[in-house]
Amino acid sequence: MAIENCENVSIQNITFENSRGIGIYIENAKGSLIDGCTIRNMGSVGICMGKGNLPEIKSDDHSMEGGGEQASRIIGSMMGVMYKNTVLDRQAGTNNGVKNCQVYNTGGGGIILSGGNRLTLESGNSFVENCKIYNYNRIEKSYRPGVWIDGVGNKISGCDIFNAPSMAILFHGNEHIIEYCKITNVCTEVDDQGAIYYGRDPSERGNIIRYNYFKELSPKHRVTATYHDDMACGSEVYGNIYFNAGSLPVLIGGGKDHHYYNNIFINSPTAIHIDNRGENWAKAMFDKDAIIDQRLKAVNYKEAPYATKYPLLVNYWEEGATKPMRNVIDGNLFVNIGNVLDGKSSWGEFYNNWMTNGDAGFVDKNDPLKGFKENAEVFQKIEGFPKLPFNKMGSTLK
User: Fold this and answer.
1) Residues 318, 324, 327, 332: what is their CA dihedral angle, to the nearest 10 degrees?
2) Is the dihedral of CA 337, 171, 166, 147 positive or negative?
3) Which single residue of 141, 319, 362, 386 has CA 20 to 30 Å from 14?
4) In this structure, how many other beta carbons lie within 10 angstroms of the beta carbon of residue 398?
């Protein structure tokens, strides 16, 4: 089904199955809603918001390199094109939503969520809510997440995403919210990836990751729960539970201005990795007209709206672009963690945290979603530690 140039179209309680392509495609729509549907056994993704791209064919050897023109009802080389054109408007529309749906047994990802304008920071206000997304990499095994997000101001809320060889969520853009999700058993066949992943663009700021439950990620490979790769900056991460969440639950790869607070880390060799890759093996990314320079110039970062929305970005080069700084880690609980930090302490600001190998006060230490006892010690050890909304984490679908 294709929903194109429409307003307020609702698709409810229908099963879409057994296709070699996309289940439902949405383009230039306003207020469309996919509610209570099952999308399964697709060759591509279950749902796609926004245009894809044709392949670019080199005339000499007919190989694909980069991507070609935008096109409707396909994905094609879209992901490669967006790597080069980080402000691409995929013309998805605004205020579109997917809720109460199950997406599974797809070939190359679950849902592609798009909307908003990166040049103006106008929000798309589109969402994926209360869905179950699993077994979504039957054909394409890597970089085809359960939910892909691009644009500005979109949201994933209350979803279960599980059983995948690669990422649960991959995002590009600004002001997105990822909340109340339960993410388990992903990144099972990869190295150096994250359950939630983004990076290599310091202008992608204002993103919030809150109240999510990361459980049973592989400790055998370089698997991360929240991965801020290659100078990613300016995220706010709070109220999450990292339970057996990989070899490095958090990785900050050379970036700035991340704030981690009121999170719970349980059973990992190391909780947080911070590095200064911009001063060593990745320093070529900071050359004139190299990738960091290109991506900052693409959004006119010294002018409004970026200069007013993200004032710390304005002096990105002047203050020392290659140095990780202002990464604040405060008010977090660490239980049975070998080391809180892998990296230099000067690359982060750590305070009001509590590290223990004892009883922090869980009702059930093997199931942190049951919450804390009323008199739990964590409330005495960490000033201002809140009562987290454990009962809202994950989908309510059966």
Assistant:
1) 180
2) positive
3) 141
4) 5
Instruction: Tell the residue number behind the tokens 């909304």, with chain if given.
Output: 389
* CA–CA distance, 23 with 40 (Å, rounded to integer): 8
Place of tokens 């960091």: 292
Phi/psi zone of residue 74: left (φ > 0), alpha (ψ -120 to 50 degrees), beta? beta
CATH for 1-190 (2.160.20, 1.10.287, 2.60.40, 1.10.1740): 2.160.20
* Separation in Å, CA 52 to CA 70, 185, 239, 318: 6, 29, 35, 37
Cα angle vertex 28, ends 103, 55, to 5°? 75
In sequence order, the β-bridge partners of residue 25 are 2, 48
Q: What's the residue count for the chain?
A: 398
Give phi and psi for 97, each to the nearest 5: -145, 155
- Token duo for residue 275: 């590095």
Digit-coded pLDDT (tens) for 132-185:
999 999 999 999 999 999 999 999 999 999 999 999 999 999 999 999 999 999
How many Å apart are CA 153 and CA 96, to the nearest integer? 12
Count how many Cα atoms sit within 13 Å of the Cα of residue 85 in the half-sphere of its side chain. 15
391 touches 211 (CB < 8 A): no
Interval 14-68: pLDDT, tens? 999 999 999 999 999 999 999 999 999 999 999 999 999 998 765 554 444 467 8
